[in-house]
Amino acid sequence: MSEYLKRVQQIEQDNEQRAAFHSKGSQVVIAGPGSGKTYLLTAKVAKLLLDGTVRYPQKIACITFSRQLAEKLVKELRELGVYDDERVYVGTIHAFCIAEILMPAVNLLPPGTIPNPFRIASEEEKQNALSNALRCQKKSFPENNRDKKTILSDLDKFRRRYFMPDQGDLSCTMFPEASNYSQNNLRNLNWTRLAIDYRKYIRHTFRAAMDFVQIEMLALHILKTKPSLVTTLSAAYPWWFVDEYQDLSPLFHQMVMHLVEQKRISVFAIGDPNQCIYEELQGSRPENLDELADMVQRVEQKELIRLLTNYRSPQNIIDVSDCVLEKKNGYQSVDKEIRGDVHVIWINNYLMPNLVSRMLKKLDAIQGSDEKLAILIPEKSTRDSLLPKLEPLNLDMRLYKDPNFNLNTELLEWLQKLAQWCSGETVYFYELTPFWHGFCQPNGASNETENFQRERELFDAIWQLRKGDMLLGNWLKEVWRTVLTEERLIEYEKFRPDDVKEFRQLLKAVSTVSRLKKKTVHSFGRTDAKILLTTFHSSKGLQFDTTILIHLDGIRPSQSVPDLRKRLAYVAVSRAVSKLYILAFNEHGGGEFAQKLKGVSGEHWTCDQQGKIAKRVQ
Predict the structure, then answer these.
(1) Could you tell me if 563 and 388 are in contact, meaning their C-beta atoms sit under 8 angstroms apart?
(2) If you compute the radius of gyration of the chain from its CA atoms, what whole number of angstroms results?
């Protein structure tokens, strides 16, 4: 039986999943942790392709907020045997807006509206533009990096919240939702003028550029004012599938609402308002799903569907999740007879690294080879205190974000995938070619003959680098010399300066940081280590047999979004499949979440001065 038919068989046994799977037209689905939302979404895409609802040359658009989630969707669609980039687009909202809205509209807009060649502003360029824009209002730009990012984040949220797409302008000069820092240090700031001056400086850098918010603003403006392009877009993409809808930009939410109201597309949107954790960072709103559901109900008379069965966690772990959220969601475990192991361990802050080290050694010895374990932390500073204790243990562990380099850029993500291929992992050569073409020809001008020649050149070069045990530093130097080349990097830097900057930082780190000098190609590429150390934010969308949560009360409170702490704690707790260890700090009475956990069923323990669990608390 094919993988698709197996999934259909499973979906048919769940009343809510079955209703969403067989629904006609637009559908909004609220899917809690472990409810099988990606399983359902990809099966629904396969259904529309296989039953002829969407026929060539029409395509389905699968849109999400990160490249990592897009990769996950591609993998699922390949398992179902339906992934074909001529029939399915899978990517981020920004990539979709650039390729399918901005570029086709170039000749419909005033000259210079879209940079030619198109490029994304670097972090340095954005900060320089913001500094100049603040200076126009006689405001100083802070020296502290965190404060710089805070102001830039506030500007992003302001533009996303107050943009008027029909006029292409902003509707307000004040921003009462700004952070404490901006309110205290940028008094009487005219935020509309700041946004206009910022855009002017971004456009008039050495090489004109756009930032991601400008891409969203312009895409929405085009959809609202260029009906001929909307007709073309909806004909090419009659179906849009949106994963993690609650985390997407409010400007993209307006795009979808407009197209659904105009009956231009059918949308299958799935997400969970309780897991909306980017509201403070990018202005996403948990209400977006309900607003879209109301629109679908009004336009197509379709009711919201809620997936109520949790296939991941036992009921007592679900109850702990509800406890930190302070909300009963009504989710039920698929097997009500199974109980998970829930342990709350009360410790002093300074004992945490010793205790985690002891726990990992013990758990690593007793866990099965296929079982995954995660250490989830509130912020990067906790990681820095843990690493000196954990690295000498030589455990099968990886860091989601290494303190010495950043894997968030497309170039470094491609290098990681290349390392997997060179190590014999299940990565196919054709998965490496799309980025390679874009890297070699960032302006997009190429033909089939040139593409074939570049692919042959790439294959010949990396075939000599298929050595998973090779030291990463030596491998990267060879990749730099024979594949990327300095000439290509310099050209690519004109379009994606941050990517090249991060690559050079990685090169420096593997030659200067002692622990990275020993890192191999295999360890750099692998994503399936037994133990993962990551933040609460980055754990979203993942699950682990055993989860160790460190200091839930370390989540920073949000001035503008009071419920954000609860949602982030909810995301962290709900990653656990069978075993959940929560380390609560004794200092200051333990904090808000620690107090809530005192009423949680499960075993409560204390810890002695050596980090050794000493006794059970009755």
Answers:
(1) no
(2) 25
CA distance to 348, 353, 356, 361, per residue, from 610 (Å) = 11, 10, 12, 15
Separation in Å, CA 498 to CA 125, 408, 607:
10, 10, 45
Model pLDDT for residues 222-266, shown as the tens digit of each residue: 999 999 999 999 999 999 999 999 999 999 999 999 999 999 999
Q: In this predicted model, what pLDDT tens digit does every residue of 464-489 receive, in sequence order?
A: 999 999 999 999 999 999 999 999 99
Residue 26, SS3? Answer: coil
How many Å apart are CA 312 and CA 578, to the nearest integer?
A: 8
pLDDT of residue 618: 45
Helix, strand or coil, per DSSP, at residue 237: coil
Asked if the model's pLDDT at residue 321 lies above 60, the reply is yes
In the DSSP assignment, the letter for residue 327 is: -
* SS3 of residue 45 by DSSP: helix
Does 617 have pLDDT greater than 60?
A: no
C-beta pairs of 426-431 under 8 Å, 24+ apart in sequence = 429/459
Q: Which residue stretches of 109-144 are H helix?
A: 123-136
pLDDT at 601 over 60: no
112-144 exposure pattern, b = at least 16 Cβ within 10 A, e = fewer: ebbbeebbbbbeebbbbbbbbbbeeeebeebee
Q: Residue 362 carries which DSSP code?
A: H
Could you tell me which residues come within 8 angstroms of residue 405 by beta carbon, excluding any fewer than 6 positions away?
Answer: 412, 502, 505, 506, 509
Kindly tell me the burial class for residue 8, based on how many C-beta atoms sit within 10 Å of its own C-beta (0-12, 13-18, 19 or more): middle
- Residue 218, classified by CB atoms within 10 Å of its CB into exposed (0-12), middle (13-18) or buried (19+), is buried
Answer for the pair 243, 62: CB distance below 8 angstroms, yes or no.
Answer: yes
pLDDT at 405: 85
Per residue in 420-459, pLDDT (tens digit) is 999 998 889 999 999 999 999 887 667 888 889 999 999 9
Q: Tell me the C-alpha to C-alpha distance, in Å, between residue 360 and each of 32, 366, 373, 586.
A: 29, 10, 9, 21
Question: Would you call 66 helix, strand, or coil by DSSP?
Answer: coil
Question: What's the CA gap between 236 and 329, in Å, rounded?
Answer: 38
- Contacts within 8 Å (CB) and 24+ apart, 285-292: 285/246, 285/250, 285/253, 286/246, 286/567, 288/245, 288/246, 288/248, 288/250, 288/253, 289/28, 289/30, 289/245, 289/246, 291/253, 291/257, 292/28, 292/245, 292/253, 292/256, 292/257, 292/260, 292/267
Percent of the chain predicted with pLDDT > 70: 95
- Six token digits for residue 461: 């070069």
Pair 544, 577: CB distance under 8 Å: yes
Q: Is the per-residue pLDDT at 331 higher than 60?
A: yes
Mean pLDDT of 399-412: 86
Contact (Cβ atoms closer than 8 angstroms) between residue 162 and residue 172: yes
**DSSP helix/strand/coil, 439:** helix
Residue 95 has pLDDT above 90, yes or no: yes
